[in-house]
Amino acid sequence: MGFFLNRKDENCTIIVGCGRLGANLANTLSDAGESVIIIDRYKDAFRKLSPSFSGIVITGDATEIFVLGEAQIEKATAVISVTNNDNTNILVAQIAKEYFHIRHVIARLYDPERECIYRDFDIDTICPAVLSAKEVEKLLHITGIGREAV
Ligand code: AMP
After folding, report:
1. Using a 6 Å cutoff on CB, does residue 45 contact ligand 1?
2. Which atom of ligand 1 is nearest to the CA of 62?
3. What global pTM score does this model have?
4. What average pLDDT does the segment 29-38 reach?
5. According to the model, what pLDDT value does residue 6 have?
6. Mean pLDDT score, 123-135
7. Which of 43, 122, 123, 138 has its CA 20 to 30 A from that of 99?
8. Could you give the CA distance from residue 108 to residue 127 in angstroms, rounded to a whole number?
9. Ligand 1 pocket member 110 (CB < 6 A)
């Protein structure tokens, strides 16, 4: 487990999952001067953070309400859940939105078919498969390969 915070900053972004995407996001936001708290269930995951990362790290399972409580989720402006598990991301996003009324909530979803469910909950989703497909499509058009398909 991490430690209890003594945070006065009300403008904080909580990132759940310090994997390739989460660490990248945390480094970028931190370098831009944003206040960041990042949660991962494995302490080792934080090695992906850059030496200049100035945020707070919390080790714990984000599906446990006390871990989110430790991060003082109620004070967050945004919660971004980018673990490698859709169910975890969905659960964290719903807790953030429905229970803590966090303004900006974003969840990564591997399964594109689940995306439509979250439109009704005011939860933004990013779907790597859909984004990648769009990028590939763009690249094909740039090189001319996809022109016939237009
Ligand atoms: P990646 O697949 O590289 O984006 O990594 C996903 C990260 O999410 C890993 O570092 C996992 O340890 C982390 N993760 C998965 N489930 C949870 C969870 N329930 N709570 C906190 N972190 C998690």
Report:
1. yes
2. 20
3. 0.89
4. 97
5. 54
6. 91
7. 43
8. 6
9. no
Residue 46: count of CB within 10 angstroms of its CB? 16
Contact criterion met (CB below 8 Å) for 108 and 128: yes
Let me know how long the chain is: 150
- Inter-residue contact 104 to 78 (CB < 8 Å): yes
- Hey, what amino acid is at 38? I
The Å distance, Cα 146 to ligand 1 centre, comes to 36
Q: How many angstroms separate the alpha carbon of residue 32 from the centre of ligand 1?
A: 23
